[in-house]
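A student in our group prepared the protein record below, which I am reviewing. Here is the record exactly as it was handed to me.
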Amino acid sequence: MMRRPVLTLRPTLPGAPEAPTVGSPVVVAPTVLAPPAARAGGGLLEAAQRSGLTGDCLSYVDDVENAVVVVPLAGEWTRIGRGLSADVHLEDSTVSRRHALIVNGEDGPRLLDDRSLNGVFLNGVRISSPRALSHGDEIRIGRHALCFARLAPALEAAAQQPPLLVA
């Protein structure tokens, strides 16, 4: 199975080199939130917005790598779980090998519980049927919080901004 590319955002120290080497995770400027700060409200959404990606994505803190990871949701579905075949791999004994799915349909992405033992929570509520995802939604799987972001391309985002009044 071919794994999808991910963008890993690591906190950097002032004065540290910013250019990543081939095959290394992308290192972003010091403005990227450190993982403990990213866990606080809005930090994961902010990290996704700073990633430079467009379209739908998930962001979460990878405790093993000690980094914020942003995963684009480009395929028909995205599997979340502890299994090695998961697109979003969460190393945690409270996460099932096949814990949840995000399915991209005509009406947008939907979150499904893949018969997990501990459940899937969307904005604090356990789900029992597929639920539509909206920008900024928090998904809880085991002890992990993931943030869904719908990132518009730069031109679309600029077009959505209110007009600037100049006196």
